[in-house]
Amino acid sequence: MGFLSTAITLYCDYSRPPFVLPPSPSSSSSPFSAAAFTFTELSASTVAVHFLLHRYRHLEDKMANQDDTHDASGSRNNVEKEIKRGLTVMKSIIRARDKGEKFEVHWSAEDQLIEPNGSMLASYIGSLVRQHIPITCDNWRSPELKVGKEKIWSEIQRSFHIDESRQKYCIQLAGKRL
Question: What's the pLDDT band for 76 if we cut at 50, 70, 90?
Fold first, then answer.
């Protein structure tokens, strides 16, 4: 919080000198808890900084009012739960596959995936690897993974127009995603 107690310099235009916003004269704990600032001659970047100051105040209030509970043993349990991203399943590919559609994949002269749909295939292969290959796998060449690799290849063929000659490339790409 020490860096926020100093003045904030806003560079609105390169043609104007920087505008310095002094700390609030109020005696509260935050230098920005005073009434909203009025900016009349400044550009749109001022609005962004004003928004950030408002957001900082919101976070400061949230941290001050954070509810922690204690259970019977006296240990602290945080009431708020961590938000996680969840599993990537590539819904657009699955929906198209269910409709019977397949995506076209194009290759460069150096046998690399190119757009359109090259990055989509690479991401889809990564999600297939997470679904079909155990995380405890430490060797991609293990014969135990043959079934998983076959599942990955069949799923790729269900969703993309790819020649059999590209199977080695796709499986190698899957190994990189492991």
Answer: low
Same domain, 51 and 110: no
Q: Say whether both 95 and 152 belong to one domain.
A: yes
Reported pTM: 0.52
- Domain membership of residue 37 as a residue range: 2-65
Note whether 35 and 100 are same-domain residues: no
The predicted pLDDT at position 58 comes to 54
Q: Is omega for the bond preceding 116 within 30 degrees of 0, making it cis? A: yes
Which spans in the chain are helix H? 44-64, 91-98, 118-132, 146-159, 167-177
Residues 6+ apart with CB under 8 A from 122: 113, 173, 177
Q: Which two tokens stand for residue 111?
A: 């046998």
